[in-house]
Amino acid sequence: MNKTPVRISLLSLLLNSKTHWNLLLKILKEAHEAQDITVERFSNLVNNITSKGHLTFSDDEILVEGKKHNQPLHISVRCDDYMIAKVLIDNGSSLNVLPKATLGKLTLADAQLGASSIVVRAFDGSKREVMGEISLPILIGPALSWIYDQPIAASSDDPRYTLREPCLIPCTNR
């Protein structure tokens, strides 16, 4: 018979466990936010604790088009000792693609390329056979951190950077 693990509210856990209480206090003492943090921003920060396995965005991060935008979402993941810088998140796709060059850089002893009968049709209508299927362990995280511009005094002759109040930020060539 399958058993469902008993769940406890975070408040009950903190009230009944001195170890958990002390850890939370330690984390709260070390975490810093701007003094004028809005209630919405604070709510988003707290929601990150309870929204395990979900991506959330604040109103400031959502594009003007809202949900109607067609911009891709890329994240970085770690697979074994290799960092994959741009992984496309697309729940609407019928398959995920791992380039052969990236697969060649992974050093996974247990990962085996399995047979696949899938044929992929490209945008131009041509058909491509896939090399196979593979399951990979990936690490996404460790956690979302809010980064604020820190006021600094700086100057740069490097054209890749532009001075913006209050900090120096990378700038793409346009």
TrEMBL record:
Keyword tRNA processing: no
Keywords: ANK repeat
Topology relative to the membrane: Peripheral membrane protein
GO cellular component: plasma membrane
Residue ranges of ANK repeats: 68-100
Subcellular localization, as worded in the UniProt entry: Cell membrane
Gene3D superfamilies (UniProt xref): Ankyrin repeat-containing domain
InterPro entries (alphabetical): Ankyrin_rpt, Ankyrin_rpt-contain_sf
Predominant subcellular localization, coarse grouping: membrane
Signal peptide bounds: none
Protein name: Uncharacterized protein
Organism name: Mucuna pruriens (Velvet bean)
